Amino acid sequence: MYSTETEHKREGPSLPSSPTEANPLHPSPPVPPGPPRSQRQYERIGESTGTTFIQTLIHLLKGNIGTGLLGLPLAVKNAGLVLGPVSLLCMGIVAIHCMRLLVKCSNRLSERVNRPFLSYGEAVFTGMENVSWLRRLAPWGRWMVNLFLIITQLGFCCVYFVFLSDNIKQVVEAANATTWDCQVDHANQTALAGTSFDSRIYMLFFLPAFILLVFTPNLKYMAPLSLLANLVMCCSLVLIYYYSLTNIELPINLPLVGKAKDYPLFFGMAIFAFEGIGVVLPLENKMQKPEGFGRVLYTGMGVVTFLYISLGTVGYLCFGDTIAGSITLNLPNCWMYQIVKLLYSFGIFITFALQFYVPAEILIPPVVDRVSGHRRRIAVGLLMRALLVIFTCCLAVLIPELDLVISLVGSVSSSFLALIFPPLLEMLTFHTDGLSPLVITKNVIISGVGLIGFATGTYSAIMELIIRNNPPHSHNLSPSYMLQ
């Protein structure tokens, strides 16, 4: 999932080039005042042409499709066969609404301050400055947004460590028993044969490769690999859909509504998947005709919501209570689907560098600027990159549960970025325009749901993590844990 999750999300190397997104915690000097956005007729910043409707749509799609999608069948299990898809639909509608709110507020605020465009953090800063009694706290508002952006991106990197270790572990340790017959075990989870190593060992094995990957000096060098990663991930998704649709066993005897204690875990996993709000402002700014971004948003997120609901439902129908933290872990022990795991893992590996870009660009330059000498600056920059990767690996080693990492990251940071901040920003931006009581009530409800989801989701994920690592309760472990 590209990340969103920041000012670019998962797989788009071109997105971080936005000048206001490079270092939000230490912002660059203000853009010189110029004609308001409405008077510029959407003139592009620093270029005469921008992205077309189709190009922007593709960026939006790949910015919202990643590892979160593969975990949605387990999310539907936590919510129930009926409540899960309905909740995903409602969450999709609210997430799209909040994305639209962010774009609308950013446009209005950029006109007020005579700026061409504003980033997420700058929009919150400007919105708080728009309210006299909040003006002193405006820098804290920008700091909070950018902090959650960093947490989200590093959280994605942790998820990638766990995802790769789980999937490569299955492929490697089941290699001797893998056949070309994909109907050997209809119930299907890949059976591990022979010696089994802890998934943490595989994380440490991948650590040097990730460090070398993030040493890439410029994301433009990753563009060919990024394109290849997108293609192989699309092919993998087609095969996952095919297997899930053709292997649903009847009659279906699954709970329509899940247990109440598991619903917060559903919330965290679902909002993790939907948290693409960080990508909308850079994409809207880069369009040739930004006034048409609404059509891009509704079309793209409509497709994304359909994919989320369909794969979540079909995956749960196919694998039932045995569904794992990623549906790839349930695929049969045959070479075609083992190759699917390898291809998707390759795509996630390449995406790691793109997800890592934003926190690196935020955290590393202030440290490098304190060092004199070109060679020393390069050495310090590389060292900082290596330390950040090691930090994310350590977090993944501490929480080697794919579903819980996804739920925790979603609950902690994605709930704020996707649900809590946008409605509050609308009230700050348009408070002088006389918002109707209905709009205020709507915004309070959305932000309130986000806060409740943050609190309950974080608590449930932490408690479930404690239970799974408590030996006396080992007989209650879920299938996703048993595959670690």
UniProtKB/TrEMBL annotation:
Say if the entry is tagged with keyword Iron-sulfur.
no
Q: Which GO terms describe its cellular component?
A: vacuolar membrane
Q: Where is the composition biased (Pro residues)?
A: 26-36
Q: Provide the Amino acid transporter transmembrane domain boundaries.
A: 50-462
Xref: Pfam families:
Aa_trans
Stretches of the chain forming a coiled coil according to its record: none
Ranges of biased composition (kind: Basic and acidic residues): 1-12
Topology with respect to the bilayer: Multi-pass membrane protein
What InterPro entries does this protein's entry cite? AA_transpt_TM
Question: Region entry Disordered: which residue ranges?
Answer: 1-41
Asked whether the keyword Transmembrane helix is assigned, the reply is yes
Which terms are listed as keywords in the entry? Membrane, Transmembrane, Transmembrane helix
What does the UniProt entry say about where the protein is found? Membrane
- Protein name from the UniProt record: Solute carrier family 36 member 1
Q: Which organism is it from?
A: Gadus morhua (Atlantic cod)
